[in-house]
Design a protein that fits this description.
124 residues; alpha/beta; Transcription Regulator spoIIAA; 6-stranded mixed beta sheet; 38% helix; globular
């Protein structure tokens, strides 16, 4: 299975998803005109990864900002990983937020409350 490595820019985040390590990273800001087009390959990748996941899967989200369409896609990613977690696999989400960014912390807590996966909140 191929990894996903997409270099971000002002409109889209860095995406690094490693099947070998089980580390999934989304970093930066997400403001694409078409969030579905950006994130659909990621969702397909997760479906394939879920067939033979690593012993532990960690989704690390370090977002500066994301728009509403991206929020929906991020939640779709989290929901698919929640299915993996409910299937008995070890899954964790690391939610990174700037220490003074209450909105980003609140967003992470909102997502946490909608799924069963344990969240680790990390300020920087």
């Amino acid at each position: 299975m191929k990894d996903i490595i997409i270099k971000g820019d002002k409109q889209k985040p860095d995406l690094v998803f490693s099947a070998e390590t089980g580390e999934l990273k989304i970093t930066g800001q997400s403001l694409p005109e078409n969030a579905t087009m950006l994130y659909s390959p990621v969702l397909e990748w997760i479906e394939e990864y879920a067939k033979e996941p690593k012993a532990k899967t960690v989704l690390s989200l370090k977002m500066k900002y994301y728009n509403t369409a991206s929020s929906k896609m991020l939640f779709s990613i989290i929901k698919r990983l929640n299915l993996l977690f409910k299937g008995g696999f070890d899954v964790e989400i690391e939610w990174h937020y700037q220490q003074d960014d209450e909105d980003m912390l609140d967003a992470g807590e909102y997502f946490r409350d909608l799924v069963d996966i344990p969240f680790k909140f990390i300020s920087y």
